[in-house]
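Example 9 (inverse folding). The structure is encoded as follows.
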């Protein structure tokens, strides 16, 4: 196959990670792959370093109003004649998708990784009915939200759910040097992610306050950076728990982080697909998260971890405390989590499903 992947965002996130790994996997299978991305950004650099044909394209949410941008893409697609154009975001649909449709590309696939309902606007109806030919959703919840406001927006039988996968052998091979050495009988809770409102790290500060009042010996490790970092640190100070929360900054060795904790906590208010939940399970760590978005599809409740009612901090705290009191349960959940990661979220299996789908179009 000749596949073009259009991913025109400036930041590195789950969608960019999925498209990059998919591009690499398809290239390794012998397919002809080209990736369109912002010059100089993480995805562009990673793609070039991986030996993928990479074309710089600068597209924003309003670039569909720029005829020169659309014409450049139109002539690119008409000249190269890819079999499939694979899109990452709504801005990509409006630009690369529209240009590909004008250029006569038969298969225009949108990979949707966010379980946020699609608005039932005239513009969206035009794009979903006349530009996109197939959708890959990263969860059943994502598939449901595509059609939530209009079940005729797109044919349901052309939406295929393929879970995100992680490279288990690559994760296993990472160095396992601990980032934090806990003291005797100390419970270590970990969280990893961008410090933005979606990720709900403010709930961890509240949980730290609850645990402190109960006299529980604990630490919370938070790995990541983001726009709310300073406000979270200030919140910890104002709550009197600044000595209970360790802000590690950006951590690139996921395994080392997971080896440093007893329980992984994800208090996100929504998720597209919680990659980090799968990574924690793959590292045999029990997980606790809110019952939102695709979390119930990743976590087997009361088997690999616990799900708490959405934004119910006290229930979340109680689940963490229950695991904290029971080392044997943590071990049991961790073992089951690894098996679930291997069965449902293995990178090789996921990429095989993507390749098979694209070749069947």
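The amino acid assigned to each position is listed next.
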């Amino acid at each position: 196959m000749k596949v073009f992947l259009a991913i025109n965002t400036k930041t590195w996130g789950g969608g960019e990670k999925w498209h990059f790994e998919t591009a690499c996997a398809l290239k390794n299978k012998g397919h002809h792959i080209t990736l369109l991305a912002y010059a100089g950004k993480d995805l562009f650099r990673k793609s070039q370093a991986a030996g993928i044909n990479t074309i710089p394209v600068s597209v924003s949410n309003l670039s569909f109003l720029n005829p020169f941008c659309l014409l450049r893409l139109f002539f690119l697609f008409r000249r190269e004649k890819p079999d499939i154009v694979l899109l990452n975001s709504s801005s990509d649909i409006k630009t690369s998708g529209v240009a590909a449709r004008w250029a006569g590309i038969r298969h225009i696939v949108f990979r949707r990784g966010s379980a946020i309902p699609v608005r039932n606007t005239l513009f969206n109806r035009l794009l979903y009915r006349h530009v996109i030919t197939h959708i890959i959703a990263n969860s059943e919840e994502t598939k449901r939200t595509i059609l939530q406001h209009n079940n005729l927006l797109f044919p349901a039988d052309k939406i295929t759910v393929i879970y995100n996968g992680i490279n288990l052998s690559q994760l296993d091979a990472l160095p396992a040097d601990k980032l934090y050495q806990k003291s005797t009988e100390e419970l270590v809770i970990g969280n990893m992610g961008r410090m933005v409102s979606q990720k709900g790290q403010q709930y961890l500060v509240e949980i730290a306050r609850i645990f402190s009042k109960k006299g529980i010996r604990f630490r919370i490790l938070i790995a990541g950076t983001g726009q709310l970092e300073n406000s979270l640190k200030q919140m910890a100070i104002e709550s009197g728990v600044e000595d209970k929360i360790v802000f590690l900054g950006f951590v690139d060795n996921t395994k080392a982080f997971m080896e440093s904790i007893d329980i992984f906590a994800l208090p996100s208010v929504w998720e597209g697909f919680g990659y980090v939940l799968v990574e924690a399970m793959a590292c045999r760590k029990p997980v606790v998260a809110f019952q939102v978005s695709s979390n119930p599809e990743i976590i087997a409740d009361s088997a690999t971890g616990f799900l708490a009612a959405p934004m119910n901090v006290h229930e979340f705290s109680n689940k963490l405390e229950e695991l904290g009191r029971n080392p044997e349960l943590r071990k049991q959940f961790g073992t089951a989590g690894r098996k679930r990661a291997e069965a449902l979220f293995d990178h090789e299996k996921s990429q095989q499903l993507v390749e098979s789908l694209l070749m069947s179009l």
